[in-house]
Design a protein that fits this description.
The protein is mostly helical. It contains nine helices and no strands. The protein has two domains: 89 residues, RNA polymerase sigma factor, region 2, helix turn helix motif (Rna Polymerase Sigma Factor, Chain: A, Orthogonal Bundle), CATH 1.10.1740; 81 residues, Winged helix-like DNA-binding domain superfamily/Winged helix DNA-binding domain (Arc Repressor Mutant, subunit A, Orthogonal Bundle), CATH 1.10.10.
Length: 191
């Protein structure tokens, strides 16, 4: 962990010191993360490209404010999330669907045995899974991507989104439940 923080510090100092190629290195390192966050929120490739550029412009403009109290990866993901969220708000697109159901305690069922990696083992299954993920509301798509694809801990996702850990766990539970319901008839994912 300290090695990552040291790498973060060196990269940030190189960018702030205007070392040639430093910002390009930062973009290359984190462009996949930025794309995952933004694209899962907005779902339109052209908008996502523009918003990723906007996110990295904001990173460049605000990098002097980064205080090394969280991994650089989380800070950049937070910037990307903020840019995408503002875009959806400007277009009046809700980032989460409202749910009035009061089922069992969501916090107790987060580790419900749904194996996302196992579900994507075969190419056809992967295609169906991604199609099902695309049907989720933007916030749930993003949280699911950060947790399963970027492998960020729930605490860091909370820092990125500004949501409490319990809310993130609820969204993960709902996302998994919706995915199971969508995939079960097609590929036999256990309910």
């Amino acid at each position: 962990m300290t090695e990552t923080r040291d790498d973060d510090r060196q990269l940030v100092n190189a960018v702030l010191g205007q070392r040639p190629g430093a910002f390009e290195q930062l973009v290359r390192t984190y462009q996949g993360l930025c794309w995952h966050v933004v694209q899962r929120m907005v779902r339109h490739p052209e908008d996502a490209r523009e918003l990723c550029q906007e996110a990295f412009l904001r990173v460049h403009q605000c990098l002097h404010q980064y205080r090394f109290d969280a991994p650089l990866k989380s800070w950049i993901a937070q910037v990307a999330y903020s840019v995408a969220k503002r875009h959806l708000e400007r277009k009046r697109i809700p980032i989460v669907e409202s749910h009035d159901d009061d089922g069992p305690s969501l916090l107790e069922q987060v580790g419900d045995g749904f194996d996302l990696e196992g579900a994507t083992a075969q190419a056809q299954v992967e295609q169906r899974l991604h199609a099902a993920i695309e049907t989720l509301p933007p916030l749930q798509r993003t949280i699911l991507t950060l947790y399963h694809m970027e492998e960020l801990p729930i605490g860091e996702i909370g820092e990125i989104t500004g949501l409490p850990e319990g809310t993130i766990k609820s969204h993960l539970f709902r996302s998994r439940k919706l995915l199971r319901e969508a995939l079960q008839p097609r590929i036999g994912v256990a309910a």
